[in-house]
Amino acid sequence: MSTILETENLTKRFGSLTANGDVNLTVESGTTHSVIGPNGAGKSTLFNLITGLLEPTSGSIRFNGEDITGESPHEVARRGLARSFQITDVFDGLTAFENVRVAAQFADDRRSSMWRSADSLTDAGGRATEILEDVGLADRSHQRAAEFAYGDRRKLEIGITMATEPDLLMLDEPTAGMGREDTISTVQLVQRLADERGFTLMLIEHDIEIVMSISDTITVLQRGEVIAEGTPDEVRADEEVQRAYLGGAQL
Amino acid sequence: MDVNLLVLQLLNGLALGVLYLLIASGLSVIFGMTDIINFAHGALYMLGAYVGLSVIDATGSFWLALLLAPLSIGVVGVFLERTTLHRIYDRDPLYHIILTFGLTLMLSDAVEFIWGKSPQQFPGPDAITGAVALGPIFYPKYKLFLIVAGIAVAGGVWLLFEKTNFGLIVRGGAQSRQTVRIMGINISNYFTLVFGLAAVLAGVAGVLAGPFLNVTPTMGDQIIITAFIVVVVGGLGSFRGSVVAALLIGLVQSLGTVFVPQLTGFLVYLLMILVLLVRPQGLLGEYEVRSDSTKVTFSEIIEPVSITDKRALGLLGVLALVPLGMGSLYSPYFVGLLSLMFIWALLALSLDMVMGYMGLLSFGHAAFFGIGAYATGLFTMHVFNSFVAAAAVAIVVAAGVAWIIGALSIRLTGVYFAMITLAFAQMFHQLALTWNDVTGGSDGLTGMPTVDLFGAGLVSLGDTATFYYFALFVTVAAYVVTVKLLDSPFGRVVTAIRESERRVSFLGYDTNVYKRRAFALSGAIGGLAGALLATYQTFVSAGTLHWVVSGDVVIAMMFGGIGTLFGPMFGAGLFIGLQEILSSYTDQWRFVLGLLLVLTVMVAPRGLITVYSSVRDAVRLRMGSGGGPQRDAATDGGENR
Amino acid sequence: MADNDSPAYASDRRTLLRTIGAAGAVGLAGCAGDDASSGGTTETSGESSGETSTSGGTTGSSSSETVKVGWLYPSTGPYGGLATYQEQGAKLAIKRINENGGIDGTQIEGFHEDTQADPQTGTQKARKLVQQDGVDALFGCISSSVGSAVAGYAAEENVPFYPDVAADGLTMENCQRTTFRYETRASQTAAAGAPWAVDNFGTKVWIHNADYLWGNSVASAWEKTAKDHNSSVEVVGSTTSELGATDFSSYISQIMSSDAEWVVTGLNGGDAVNFLKQSNSYGLKSEKTLVSPVNSFQFIRKAAGEAAQNTYSAIRYYEGFESDANSEFVQAFTDEYASAPDNFSHVSWVYMYLYKRAAEKAGSFATDDIVEAQTAVSLDGPMGTTSYRECDHQAARPYSMGEIVAPGDYDWPDIEVMTTIEADEATVPCSSVSCQL
């Protein structure tokens, strides 16, 4: 097992507020790694730092052994790191098919060609169809994303991120706001895809039950700092986690 | 420099700044609360001066005017807000701009109709006429009063915002509407109140300006752009920012005329560009503008009509026949007017490409139009009289300028992008006005030859029919190329950027590259339109570069149907045609045009192309053709979100 | 007045017609340099000759018997106020001429368009007038940029153009054989005003102008004329403001802090009014003498009111000018509109009569005939006798300089004439005009 992502003393300050302080995190390739913590613990900030949306105040980030600190989102994405957002971010005005194809198109050398039809990139088109089938939206591929229900938009976003063929997929609360049933099916979908396609999964998730059942490793953040890291069992047993995060209740 | 003069100029700058402050603070507060860029604010200021004038005529009292006129303007403001804006707050800011622009046209025409076009005398209060000695210098008492009164009013407004519940809610609303709603407050009533309050401030400014500046129907047009600049420089939605920026700009203008007179027309725009590049949120902007407040979104995606569509072919067939009727059915003028409409259609196409497809609000497309026109004019005059060669130069220069402007401003979005492109275009306008030796200054570029298509006498474009066919060909070709371009992988990325730039960049695309390239392509088409314009007119005026042209294209684009490529082209043609025809029949043509704009925004937000399809659908339903309305390229209805 | 078609020259009209008719051929000699080949079109109205003109008066205006004239006004935009006067003058003149038998029996049909004070729109409207309405001549405009754009277009289309524009260039650098200007050239008013101002106010002058064609024309003409008159004249400072500027405080402050004795301003319309009003509030008038080429305009005197009083201005026209032709014109205007005419009404009026004279002399409305005849006629207009020079197609007449004083016959400030110079003195000799026709 190799390390795919590693942060070293990653710190982000907004004025006097420390959103992340000396975060050291290691994600092993092929695992499912969850980040949990109470609201305001700095989970999304951590994701934003890793994916280049925010610039760290100090510390470094290594991805597949290379330093990516300070790179912009598109550079990070090109290295094989994809992500979803807390508030679903898809191309509302485009059809589901076009949503995914634009993502799949990136792998093609002709991705910014101006003098041929986008339809001529058959590889991208084929992969888009395939992915839509995978995420269960194949029959609605010509509907605009704006018309999709909440859960389907989430699935579409996952489809988009997958189309870039990432090594690491980071999902920011993929099931937030979903009903129980949707939540389970979405999580199962993601894990199945991760297995099939062999990418590493990293997620922020609130539903502790889900986290416990699917994660290989869990990192617990509090006030921007890592207070525990380990397997679900280890984390469950960690007293500090129980005290600080779970209010002393048994997991 | 003479100390007395310095003191005088400082006072002058202060007085000017206070006037800007009264107008800009209203604009800023409206924006902060509702995200609306109220173009009609200048018209309200102007109306304030006129109502004040009438009060003085009736009562002889300036003080009564200072009380009654602003209140009346407040009532007018509330009325306008309730009847129009209030119903479309959920729409994109573009619609608000167009709507308030329409209201501006209506208001200024109404004022002209009621009070006449001539500047009017606005008597100041007797007690404060003449000058007073301040040490060694004399200064007008009225302007001292203006400074004091303006600061007092602004202070009052500040207290209102800082110390009252009303202010708390308004400031809260500016930060987060949701929070205020959760507190159980009907925020939409506050929108109306804020709009009314801002209108009152505009009215105060109008009356205060009366005795000092001219009272004319155009007084609002001149000040509104400066007021926008103040708001942007100070920070959108920031009252304190407006105060600082208003005084700063007043002083810069006043001192600029002494220290750098040759830069007078450029200074304010330079200042704005500098601020936008270094600190986009403005000097005292406290928060980022909501990203959704500046997005271009559509309820429906309408694909461009294919050129092989039978309606498109039919239209082209009819257009191809037009010159045959010249002289018998109609005059060459009509054919020429159609050519002009093609040129504007081309410009609208160029704008729709970046605005409708990439979501970049360019408010400076006049720059490319004008640069293309000047390049063509200068080239045919001084180098070689050939359209092909001149247009190539025009396209390259316009695209190059667009690329540079794009590169400088690309990290700005929404309103900020609109303002910086406006500033760049206005600088080119100033340049055309002041660079007399090359551009002919305000006189324009005269002495252009009748242009040959290839040069050396080969195919003269001076012939009305020839030019018509040529312009038609170029326009159709540009349309076809643009449609193809947007269907390409590149085009798909561009469209995706409109929907979510962040998402696109997280797929690995460097969005700035795409935006720059698309902007340059758009500039190229704009330059081509300019080349045609110069050829058509054999004359180029600085007016081609004026912001009004940029505004007109934006309006024409919305009028026709943004984001459809063919809609804006129809819109532009129609807009120019209507202006031309209406203005021949009535002096009040701007009122009619304004009314049309307001109605279009209110009733057919996706533009006139949707009116056509809605009507046709209705007819089909009535005729019982069965199966309901067909949904094809142009039939998607115009319901708002 | 029943059979007088013009109050201006009714008495000697027939005599003049005859004289000029005879002298016509001679008068044309001056145009020999012109390309004669283009003049040979066969188009003539063939309708009437000068001798039959008095028989008119009852002609029905069937389409074959009207002459179409196109007028361009900046009705919307910054000069809207001036445009109203201009349009009133034109419409009144057309009406009066038609009532009195038209032009040799041919009724005039007027077409009126709004240039929006924009050269592009102006050219487009001129195009409409020529191509769609089929007008035989173009008139009007006000702003210099529109005027010169339209002049270019009119020359291209070979249509006579009578511009109401005062910038020098139009008849000094870019003369066109189709352009005929009666409106005062900036240098003509400078000739009337600058030497007198130097003699009366001193040699230290400040020049301020709006930065556009006419404004710059004024600045250079006044400077040159003043210096030619007295070599010790010194321009102690010069400033320019944007056209349409509203706040002149900083310029006024600069002038006040200088040691200039008088100020000449190349400002017109709203700019001029603003400058006067703001100067007044600074008390500039008590320190420096204000001189202008145009503040005598009724429009400016009305809008500036008291602020215009005790300033000096060259006079292009004013309603109180004493001449028979003017009192009849003022009477006619007042009867029609219940107000007194302005300079722009007067120019419109004179243009229609000048055109009438040329058409009657030519016996045709064809451009080439009009162009030939126009320089051979003269008119006894409200401001004196006027005629066109052949070298540059600029008309001249006597010019005056006056002081704007307290209201007299009207509600607004009156004018007191201080000095008057003859047409010849005011107009630079043909030899120093850079374009030659």
TrEMBL record, chain A:
Keywords: Amino-acid transport, ATP-binding, Nucleotide-binding, Transport. SUPFAM superfamilies: P-loop containing nucleoside triphosphate hydrolases. One of its GO terms (molecular function) is ATP binding. The keyword Ribonucleoprotein does not apply. GO terms for cellular component: plasma membrane. One of its GO terms (biological process) is amino acid transport. Probable component of a branched-chain amino-acid transport system. Belongs to the ABC transporter superfamily. Pfam families: ABC_tran, BCA_ABC_TP_C. This is Probable branched-chain amino acid transport ATP-binding protein LivG. Residues 5-248 form the ABC transporter domain. InterPro entries: AAA+_ATPase, ABC_AA/LPS_Transport, ABC_transporter-like_ATP-bd, ABC_transporter-like_CS, BCA_ABC_TP_C, P-loop_NTPase. It comes from the Archaea. SMART domains: AAA.
From TrEMBL, chain B:
GO terms for cellular component: plasma membrane. One of its GO terms (molecular function) is branched-chain amino acid transmembrane transporter activity. The keyword Membrane applies. CDD domains: TM_PBP1_LivH_like, TM_PBP1_LivM_like. GO terms for biological process: amino acid transport. Keywords: Amino-acid transport, Cell membrane, Membrane, Transmembrane, Transmembrane helix, Transport. This is Branched-chain amino acid transport system permease protein. It is found in: Cell membrane. Belongs to the binding-protein-dependent transport system permease family. LivHM subfamily. It is a multi-pass membrane protein. The chain crosses the membrane at residues 6-24, 36-56, 62-81, 93-115, 144-161, 190-212, 224-251, 258-278, 330-349, 356-375, 387-408, 415-435, 467-486, 518-536, 556-578, 590-615. It comes from the Archaea.
TrEMBL record, chain C:
Keywords: Signal. The keyword Calcium does not apply. InterPro entries: BCAA_transport, Leu-bd, Peripla_BP_I. Residues 28-65, 104-123 are annotated as: Disordered. Transmembrane segments: none annotated. Residues 66-405 form the Leucine-binding protein domain. The keyword Signal applies. It comes from the Archaea. This is Branched-chain amino acid transport system substrate-binding protein. It comes from Halogeometricum limi.
